[in-house]
Amino acid sequence: MADSQLFCVAEERSGHCAVVDGNFLYVWGGYVSIEDNEVYLPNDEIWTYDIDSGLWRMHLMEGELPASMSGSCGACINGKLYIFGGYDDKGYSNRLYFVNLRTRDGTYIWEKITNFEGQPPTPRDKLSCWVYKDRLIYFGGYGCRRHSELQDCFDVHDASWEEQIFWGWHNDVHIFDTKTQTWFQPEIKGGVPPQPRAAHTCAVLGNKGYIFGGRVLVSVFNGNVQCSL
């Protein structure tokens, strides 16, 4: 059985992932500011909050651990926590991991999804995710692309011309089907799409996904947009 410790409250943090499954809140990742430095929190810890008892507990994790990151996008489907993207000292990520939260022996084991079909999103952080049926639907985020990957869905912020790497904001939509292990981009119809952005929020109601807010450069949005799923 994996080690766990009981605490009155989880460590302070920002840029983390939090999901709810059953009567438990699960928190992973993020960073804490120490003397003006951003320190990434351990990647082998997951915190659980029992909504009924009000108790926090820290569990150690095993398996193919994601890097310690902030700005990753977390979502829960059928008792599994999926983590996509994020940022660490080595740059932006477009890797996808999952862990079964409904463990019977208290052991939380990360698995990296490598056997998939299709093309994942380019590396990024601070994106959003809807959950609809058995699919993860990702939108936006800040990240990097190579020159050959530049598209209208990408608002360039900075560039390294020597390495042909560009950084900026996205407004593209990517879907991962957890049943078929497939990445794909849906055909987008309708009116004007949302502007590229990061650090926005989202929610799903019925068969519609909603996004609100976010930022690009120094601009902060306060409009909301809906998308039928």
Descriptive account of the structure:
The structure is a single chain. With 229 residues, the protein is mainly β. Strands 1, 2, 3, 6, 7, 8, 9, 12 and 13 form a nine-stranded mixed sheet that branches. Strands 14, 15, 16, 17, 18 and 19 form a six-stranded antiparallel sheet that branches. The chain has a three-stranded antiparallel sheet with strand order 20-21-24, with no helix packed on it. The chain contains no helices and 24 strands.
What oligomeric assembly is this protein in? single chain
Percentage of residues in DSSP E strands = over 45%
Largest sheet: 9 strands, mixed
Number of domains: 2
Average predicted local confidence, pLDDT: 92
Strand-pairing-aware structural class: mainly beta
Low-confidence stretches: none
Order of helices and strands: EEEEEEEEEEEEEEEEEEEEEEEE
Work out the helix count: 0
- Roughly what percent helix? under 10%
GO cellular component, one term: cytosol
Keywords: Kelch repeat, Repeat, Ubl conjugation pathway
Protein name: Kelch domain containing 1
GO molecular function, one term: ubiquitin-like ligase-substrate adaptor activity
